[in-house]
Design goal:
The protein has 468 residues and is an all-alpha fold. The chain is 57% helix and 2% strand. It contains 13 helices and four strands. The chain has a two-stranded antiparallel ribbon. Strands 2-3 form a two-stranded antiparallel ribbon. It is flat, with a radius of gyration of 45 Å.
Length: 468
Amino acid sequence: MLSVRRNFMPDDKQKQKIQHFVQYKFTPGLGFYGFGLIHMIGNLSRTATANLRQLIDAGTLANMPAGFKARGMRIANDSEPLSPGEFRDVDVPGGDLRSVLMPLPYKEPSRTLFELMGFVVSAAQKFVGTSDIGVGDGKQEMPVGTTIALLERGARVINAVHKRLHASMKIELKMLAKQFAQDPVPYPYETGVDQQIKAQDFDQRIDVLPVSDPNIFSMSQRVILAQEQLKLAQAAPEMHNMYESYKRMYEALGVGNIDQILTPKPQPQPKDPGTENQEASDAAIGQGKLTAFPEQNHDAHIAVHQIYMQSQIAKLQPAVLMTLEKHIYEHLALKAKVMVEQEMAQPPMDEAMDPAMAQQAQPDPAAMENKIAEVQAQLMSEYLQGNPPKESDDPLVDIKQQELDLRAQEQQQDAMQDQAKLQLDKQKMQESNAIQRERIQTTEDIAQMRAQIALQRQQQNANGKAGQ
């Protein structure tokens, strides 16, 4: 015995031993070292290799036979091998060539040995668990669950190996972090600051862990998962963010500069109330949205919308009136929020003020929400008092008026669609006429060029005859 050293931390009451080695193993072994995947399939691999060599040797011996010949038999040029199609003279003492030549009994490669090699290879593949998904053999549009199940089934062992490697890497990184905390060493690269690693850089506040996903072990798996996710998003685009779905698909494929490929979703911009009145018809049919912003003049916007809602054009479109009414409510909510924030705004914090006191001086979010609700109720009451709902003496008249309004709206929509169709047909006709004119002009230019060339040739022929 040379020395006895402590193998636990001084402040560890449980005296747990310090781990110095990390095993990257597939399964636990009988001794200190574990077994890897190559240990498990090594015997099968050696058996398959031996079978393959035996088949090659049998084929070689069958194609190059050897044997015995009688001592008294003489063959011309027996030191040279026979060429294809060549016959040589042989002096046979007994007169029968077969009695003086005996080839060795080499057999062809055994079919049983070939089947044994195939069985060994198949057993190794089943042990590893690798299999093809068979996308080309089956249906192209397989369900998402079926594709994921086939992928996981075909890579169970490889997935387990990847997860064990990930777990071992996690243990090793923790060991390195503890070592850096106990024995600070300089950074091996230039950082522009102090290169000395400090113990607090690797204390218990920060975990040093691998950032990879242990469930994703190959790029093909990542691409298939992203592709199936994109299919789900395309099946229900109203429930998914299509921009993010395509972005993740490009990230799985490893494409760089994705922002230059995908067109970012346009963000709503503040607009004047007149423009919002014009776009209210499109927003009513789902082709846009009216958005209010906190910095806008809410009273002016509400006034302009109310004036437009009193016009005859707006009254013939109940959907537009409903859209503008919701937009006005949005302005009222933002107005209430701005009023409460201005009222409860705190003065700038003094540098000498205690941070704890400054935190207590901040307005309570719950109280602010309650105040905003009270101001919204007051603004809504004032708005409804200034715009009381019109009541009719006869409910049948109201129903009939609603039917007339709906019919007028449908007629207006039909008229707008007809106008758009006429405009499109007119544009197509103009484009067709322009194409025809270009063709006619091109034909005329070609005919004129041909005429000029023929005239030049005639003049050249006439000049040649005159010179003769």
